[in-house]
Design goal:
RNA-binding; Helix Hairpins; BirA Bifunctional Protein, domain 2; 19 strands
Length: 423
Amino acid sequence: MLQISFLRENSEFAVERLKVRGIDAAADIAHALELDKAVREAKTNFEAQKAEANKIAKSIGELFKTGKAEEANQLKARSSELKESSKTLQEQIANNQEALEKLLYTLPNLPSKQVPSGTNENDNEVVFEFGDIPYQNHKKVPHWEIATAKNLIDFELGNKVTGAGFPFYKGYGALYQRALINFFLTEATKVGYTEYQAPLLVNEDSGFGTGQLPDKEGQMYHVTEDNLYLIPTAEVPITNIFRNNILTEMDLPIKSTGYTPCFRREAGSYGKDVRGLNRLHQFDKVEIVQIAHPSKSYEILEDMLSHSKLLLEKLGLKYRVLKLCGGDLGFTSALTYDLEVYSAAQEKWLEVSSVSNFENFQANRLKLRYKDADGNISLCHTLNGSALALPRVLAALLENYQSEEGIHIPEVLQPFMGISIIK
RNA sequence: GGAGAGGUGGCCGAGUGGUUGAAGGCGCACGCCUGGAAAGUGUGUAUACGUCAAAAGCGUAUCGAGGGUUCGAAUCCCUCUCUCUCCGCCA
């Protein structure tokens, strides 16, 4: 969430930035500032009255101690008066504050200067492209066909046991998944990320902290019995580790990683690119998260992007990097790169990673701050990236690595799998 | 699921209606002491918000959360929540 203190000084800048998302927030921001002003004015009065009341209460105590009950009783009357009048002010403050917060929740993060303007995914900017398709002379079959033929994934079984979007991986398919998870985690911990095994269910506060709530309530599976949410990404539990923390500047950046299944209801996206592994309700992902010093976060974003790029290169996948335009940028993000692999059989690009800098938008909700050498306390920046999401990576691997001999396994995965080809 | 106990500062831990933002200890920071260190010793050590050009200062709030009683609540009452222990069930 945007800081009201920031908006006080930079309202025009904020309006300008939000235009990149195609949002005209001028009225909302003006309204927020009015509410803020009202809150502060009422607060000042309220606090003055409280101060007096506290003073009186104190002196009443003194008077009783010294046996001057008469005087004390006179003061009580004045104190009661103050209490009455402060009550209305208190209500005013609470109402306005609530309205202000609600309004602030609806405002998305300000896109960074680098964000191209645009209204949808077609306006995203391709900033990098790399790689080739191996075994080019061989005709490629879509992954859902080859995976079924080779007995790697059973979609029907998933339908039976749970429902659409919950496939079973089996045999070499399951092994392939395990190898990928292992490979991704190994690569992340090698460069200094601390591995976590995180809870898959989170409470409301955590959902709120990283911005899934209240905005995307309908996209998460909600266990109403216990008021817990199935995580849509490891970002939620792993970033929330640091909720309500004041870190030491020296400890930054903090690099964390974790593998988790991810659960997404994908409400409203039925019928769109849902074949095979392209869009699932449950999928596996290794996430990398960094808590950063504000002055370093863009450097770190590039570093995280490089990490994900390198994974794809090691896997020998053809991929490209997109810089998301304002219209396609997530609610909480200031700048996002998407990585897409090319799927040779479907002949299209599949998103396998999203690397974002949230600046202090999440940190403000999380109350995640750091203290510098002078004792000043400021909000951290938070970043995360998929490194990587499994199903589409697997889809591309199954499709791109086909030859007449079978499905080849990229060299980097062979130690994790113990085989070099699925025949 | 049943029964009980408990949530106080970075941590441990006192406090039962009146200078308690909170004793004491540990930890941490800085200083003294020392050749250096330990020990010892002194000082300091929460956060948010408001006020102020800013700092200082001042004010308000915060002892799990919310509400209530009272002139005054960490302390009394109510509701919720979380944690722990025992029993039951169970990977």
